[in-house]
Amino acid sequence: MTQHFLTLMDLDKGTLRHLIDRAIELKAIQKSGELFEPFKNRVLGMIFDKSSTRTRVSFETGMVQFGGHAIFLSPRDTQLGRGEPVEDSARVLSRMVDAIMIRTYDHANLERFAEYSDVPVINALTDMYHPCQLLADMQTYHEHRGDISGKTVAYIGDGNNMCHSYMNAARQYGFTLNVAVPEGFDPDAALLKETGHCVNIFRKPEEAVVGAHLVTTDVWASMGQEEEQAIRAERFTGYQVNDELMALADKEAIFMHCLPAHREEEVSASVIDGPQSVVWDQAENRLHAQKALLELLLTKK
Ligand code: CP
Ligand code: NVA
How far is CA 83 from CA 75, 107, 112, in A? Predict the structure, then answer.
């Protein structure tokens, strides 16, 4: 069976922990200047239905560092954008490339693509999940504070793809997740039911952050929700991660944001640009964590 990575639930806990260790090793190899090119002539196809800076550059750079190649495919200039069925595109592309990364809207489309692909498919963000970001976030926490199991994470904001991936991370990496979300923007109900043993929902950010070792947030309007920006800004008033909120968390707490960020909306400039913020390490780790993932998927039989 082809091993895909559509959510954090596709890998077992041991493998997810191994990915953190391996990402840290690959980072050290890269920084030492040593060439490590196990994937010469191997090709990653990258389908982007939405914009990206970090995801595109980290996957493309990772493949080049591994001695391989990546192809950027946008709906504007592929037949996918003109209505060629997902099933046909998956079968054709997977006969040519060695792995396929997809960023799209509907998670079901990604699942359909994976069903018809003979090569590993990686979720590079859907409306429902963003698991690659969590690999980088878990690596970053580990580098700064050690093992995350048994710790408390506070996610402040929208019950979106990032929130859902944090919920899966809570059960896979063994931490407690406190989600502070305004009514009407709750995370997926079925996922909440599955993760109820490690996820708590709060309406007050001040309660969710108490004792948190990691505080994180995301934009209030995700890609595809641009027209809701104004109404969301109003509904999320009071959900900003700022100095007052950080003061209620553990005194050793660190701050993460998957980026791009909107300063003075979901996070104050003083926090994201302040001493507790690790967002630049977090962004860099997209590269190392995804190299560990690519290595796993491309070598797995
Ligand atoms: N965090 C993240 O996925 O960034 P991009 O949208 O720039 O890829
Ligand atoms: N929730 C955001 C994450 C961006 C990386 C979005 O989907 O736009």
Answer: 9, 18, 15
Over residues 52-75, mean pLDDT: 97
Positions marked active-site = 103, 130, 133, 218, 258, 286
Whether residues 160 and 289 share a domain: the answer is no
pLDDT for 301 equals 61
Do both 108 and 59 map to the same domain?
Answer: yes
Whether 115 is in a domain gets the answer yes
| Whether residues 164 and 101 fall in one domain | no
Q: What is the pTM of this model?
A: 0.98
pLDDT-derived band of residue 300, with 50, 70 and 90 as boundaries?
Answer: confident
User: What pLDDT, on the 0 to 100 scale, is given for residue 2?
Assistant: 94
Shared domain check, 140 and 28: no
Res. 292: pLDDT tops 90:
yes
Ligand 2 neighbours by CB, cut-off 6 Å: 125, 130, 160-162, 218-219, 222-223, 258
Residue 101: the pLDDT is 98
Which residue, by CA, sits nearest to atom 7 of ligand 1? 53
Angstrom CA distances, 144 to 15, 20, 255, 267, stand at 21, 13, 11, 21
Instruction: Give the tokens for residue 273.
Output: 């640009």
Pocket test for ligand 1, best of 47, 48, 50, 55 (most atoms within 8 A of CB): 55
Contacts of 257 (CB under 8 A, 6+ apart): 216, 217, 218, 266, 267, 272, 277, 279, 282
- Cα-based distances in Å from 273 to 8, 45, 90, 256, 279: 29, 35, 42, 11, 9
Q: What average pLDDT does range 108-118 have in this prediction?
A: 98
